[in-house]
C-alpha cells in the first residue's frame, strides 16, 4: 500500500532504508529539521545541515522514486541557547524559498524551559510572517503532557494563527484530545520504546477516527524503525480494518495536510470509490 | 473485532509483556531493590492501574509518569527526560 511518512529524519539513515521504504510503498517523506544527537557549535553548522536537507537529501531519495520534502527550524533540543537560536533564525528565510521546503519545523519544547518557549514563539512569528505551515515537536516522556499544554497555550495567543495549518506531532493517549479539541492536526510517531507503538496507534485511530491524524516512522538516529508505517498498516489489516480506511490514514491524510503548501506535489492516484466505513 | 477475537489474536503477546515486567521487577529485587527510586515508585503506581477495571488505563498510566506542574523551568536542567516525573526535593 502507498504511504507518505510525514516525519522522517532521513539524514540519519542509509540508502538501504530508502530502498526498503520504497519497496514497502513509501512515495514521499517530509523531513523536519532536528537535533543531531549532539549540539552544533555555530550557525554555520546549521546552515550546512539546511543545505543537506534542501539539496543533497532530495537527490538521494529520488534514486528510490521517493519525493523528499523538508522543514526549516531551530530544533527544541538546542533552543535553550538563545544567542545561537537568534543567529539560526536569521538564516532560515532564504531557505523557505527552496522548492522542497514546506514550512517551519520541527519547533517546540524539550524540557519546557523559559528559553525554549521564547525560541518557540519567535519561530511561530517567523512562520506567520512568511505564511508557512508549522510542524511542532512535543517533548518526551514525563515532559510531554506539560509541554503539549504549554505549547497550545502559547499558540492560542496568536489570533492570526490558523490551527488547520499547524501539526502538533508526537501525540500520545494523554495529549491527543487537547490537540484535536483546539483544531490542530496531530501526528503519531511510531517508536519501539519512547512514544507510540503501531498497536497503540491503531487504538487511537479506532477511538478518534482518521481525521487530522497522521502516522510516521520518524527514521530517527536513535531506536526507531524506518518501516514503522508498514508495521502500522499490517496492524490495521490484522484488525480487519478496510483498505480504504487504511489508505485514508497513511496516504490521504498526510497528503491533505502537506498539500496546504503548494510546493507539495505528490500524485497519490485515484481515490477508492467506497466510503470510509464507520469504526 | 469482538472481545473473543481480540483475546484470541493478542493474548499470547500480552502474556509475554506481563512476564517481562515481572522479570524486570524480580531482577531489581535480586540486585538489592530500588524502592525509593522515583521512577520505580511511579512504575508500581502504574501497575496498580493495570489490575483495575476502570476504562482509560493507558491515559491514567501516562499521567502517573507525567510532570504535573504547569510553569516552564527557569533553565535547562538536562537534555533528556527520565521517563517519570522527578520531584524537586
What is the residue-mean pLDDT of chain B, rounded to a whole number? Answer: 95
The coarse silhouette of chain B is extended
Helix content of chain A: 25-40%
What's the total count of β strands of chain A?
8
Number of helices of chain B: 3
Radius of gyration of chain B: 17 Å
**Physical arrangement of strands within the biggest beta sheet of chain A:** 1-2-3-4-5-6-7-8
Question: Tally the helices of chain A: what do you get?
Answer: 9
Number of DSSP E strands of chain B = 0
Q: Give the topology string of chain B: H per helix, E per strand.
A: HHH
Low-confidence stretches of chain A: 273-279
Helix/sheet category of chain B: mainly alpha
* CA distance, first residue to last residue of chain B: 48 Å
Q: What oligomerization state is this entry in? A: heterodimer
Helical content class of chain B = 55-70%
Largest interface by residue count? Answer: A-B, 28 and 27 residues
Kindly provide the radius of gyration of chain A, computed on alpha-carbon positions and rounded to a whole number of angstroms.
Answer: 17 Å
Mean pLDDT of chain A: 96
Largest sheet of chain A: 8 strands, parallel
* C-alpha geometry of chain A: globular
Amino acid at each position: 500500500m502507498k504511504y507518505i511518512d510525514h516525519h522522517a529524519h532521513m539524514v540519519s539513515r542509509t540508502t538501504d532504508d530508502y530502498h526498503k521504504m520504497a519497496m514497502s510503498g513509501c512515495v514521499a517523506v517530509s523531513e523536519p529539521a532536528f537535533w543531531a544527537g549532539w549540539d552544533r557549535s555555530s550557525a554555520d553548522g546549521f546552515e550546512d545541515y539546511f543545505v543537506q536537507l534542501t539539496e543533497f537529501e532530495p537527490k538521494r531519495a529520488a534514486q528510490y522514486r521517493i519525493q523528499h520534502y523538508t522543514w526549516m527550524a531551530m530544533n527544541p533540543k538546542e533552543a535553550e541557547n538563545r544567542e545561537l537560536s537568534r543567529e539560526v533564525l536569521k538564516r532560515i528565510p532564504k531557505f523557505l524559498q527552496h522548492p522542497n521546503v514546506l514550512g517551519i519545523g520541527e519547533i517546540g519544547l524539550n524540557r519546557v524551559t523559559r528559553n525554549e518557549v521564547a525560541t518557540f514563539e519567535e519561530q511561530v512569528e517567523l512562520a506567520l510572517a512568511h505564511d508557512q505551515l508549522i510542524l511542532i515537536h512535543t517533548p518526551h516522556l514525563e515532559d510531554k503532557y506539560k509541554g503539549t499544554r504549554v505549547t497550545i497555550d502559547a499558540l492560542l495567543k496568536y489570533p492570526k494563527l490558523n490551527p488547520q495549518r499547524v501539526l502538533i506531532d508526537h501525540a500520545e493517549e494523554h495529549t491527543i484530545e487537547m490537540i484535536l479539541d483546539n483544531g490542530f492536526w496531530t501526528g503519531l510517531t511510531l517508536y519501539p520504546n519512547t512514544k507510540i507503538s503501531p498497536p497503540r496507534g491503531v487504538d487511537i485511530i479506532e477511538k478518534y477516527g482518521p481525521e487530522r491524524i497522521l502516522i510516521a516512522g520518524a527514521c530517527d538516529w536513535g531506536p526507531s524503525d524506518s518501516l514503522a508505517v508498514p508495521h502500522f498498516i499490517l496492524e490495521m489489516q490484522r484488525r480487519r480494518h478496510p483498505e480504504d480506511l487504511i489508505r485514508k490514514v497513511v496516504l490521504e491524510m498526510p497528503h491533505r495536510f502537506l498539500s496546504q503548501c503548494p510546493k507539495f506535489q505528490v500524485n497519490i492516484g485515484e481515490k477508492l470509490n467506497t466510503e470510509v466505513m464507520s469504526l | 473485532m469482538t472481545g473473543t477475537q481480540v483475546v484470541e489474536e493478542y493474548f499470547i503477546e500480552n502474556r509475554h509483556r506481563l512476564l517481562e515486567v515481572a522479570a524486570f521487577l524480580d531482577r531489581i529485587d535480586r540486585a538489592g531493590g530500588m524502592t525509593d527510586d522515583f521512577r520505580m515508585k511511579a512504575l508500581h503506581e502504574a501497575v496498580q492501574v493495570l489490575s483495575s477495571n476502570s476504562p482509560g488505563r493507558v491515559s491514567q498510566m501516562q499521567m502517573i509518569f507525567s510532570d504535573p506542574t504547569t510553569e516552564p523551568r527557569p533553565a535547562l536542567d538536562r537534555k533528556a527526560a527520565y521517563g517519570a516525573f522527578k520531584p524537586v526535593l
